[in-house]
Amino acid sequence: MSAEPRINDRIRVPEVRLVGPSGEQVGIVPLAKALELAQEYDLDLVEVAANARPPVCKLMDYGKFKYESAMKAREARKNQAHTVIKEMKLRPKIDPHDYDTKKGHVVRFLKQGDKVKITIMFRGREQSRPELGYRLLQRLAEDVQDLGFVESNPKQDGRNMIMVLGPHKKKTEAMAEARQAQEARKADAKANPGKSQNAADAETPAEEPAEEHAEA
């Protein structure tokens, strides 16, 4: 069954409650009179409340209405924020360089407005030293406290210890800031075409190694 409203000669009722093109209430009029007014205004007669008695119809440009509705729906989907959980895995005896690299990923995820599941993986005799993992998770939480908070405290899960960090910044805010930054870069590139390429080359970071994370 089509979700499209009935328009013009597809409307099959003897009379309608008519709403004018500016939203004004015209009142209950015969269908023939409503269709005549639609022709005079060069608009469509659109049934907007089929279950009312009599049905409510409005004079409008239906093609323009459909286009604007589609654009609004597209913009709403574009701005929709999906809850995403990234995962970062660490070992309890991680070396400083690897820790800084992993922390950098966590920082980036939190800046994007995503949650981060931190998993400490214990192997062999490490399982008898859960305090190592706990201290590491506490250290990471403190290092990124300006960007995120502990949403789920560390807990043992078999051979792993898990903690979840939540971002202070909402996903929608992060998306809006990212778009603003992108627009600012485009405006700067357009205003300074000579130096924009050199600046972009200088600011482009080296390719990062593969990240150990997953989305849920």
Automatic annotation (TrEMBL):
UniProt-annotated stretches for the region Disordered: 170-216
Domain of life: Bacteria
HAMAP family assigned: IF_3
Job description of the protein: IF-3 binds to the 30S ribosomal subunit and shifts the equilibrium between 70S ribosomes and their 50S and 30S subunits in favor of the free subunits, thus enhancing the availability of 30S subunits on which protein synthesis initiation begins.
Primary site of residence: cytoplasm
Pfam family, one: IF3_N
UniProt biased composition (Basic and acidic residues): 172-189
Cited Gene3D superfamilies: Translation initiation factor 3 (IF-3), C-terminal domain, Translation initiation factor 3 (IF-3), N-terminal domain
PANTHER family: TRANSLATION INITIATION FACTOR IF-3 (PTHR10938), TRANSLATION INITIATION FACTOR IF-3, MITOCHONDRIAL (PTHR10938:SF0)
Cellular compartment(s): Cytoplasm
Family, as annotated: Belongs to the IF-3 family.
Organism of derivation: Streptomyces andamanensis
Keyword 4Fe-4S part of the UniProt annotation: no
GO molecular function: translation initiation factor activity
Subunit structure: Monomer.
InterPro entries named among the record's database cross-references: T_IF-3_C_sf, T_IF-3_N_sf, Translation_initiation_fac_3, Translation_initiation_fac_3_C, Translation_initiation_fac_3_N
Claim: Hydrolase is one of the keywords in the record: no
Gene behind the chain: infC
Stretches assigned to the Translation initiation factor 3 N-terminal domain: 7-76
UniProt-recorded name of the protein: Translation initiation factor IF-3
Listed SUPFAM superfamilies: Translation initiation factor IF3, C-terminal domain (SSF55200), Translation initiation factor IF3, N-terminal domain (SSF54364)
UniProt keyword terms in alphabetical order: Cytoplasm, Initiation factor, Protein biosynthesis
Chain ranges of the Translation initiation factor 3 C-terminal domain: 84-167
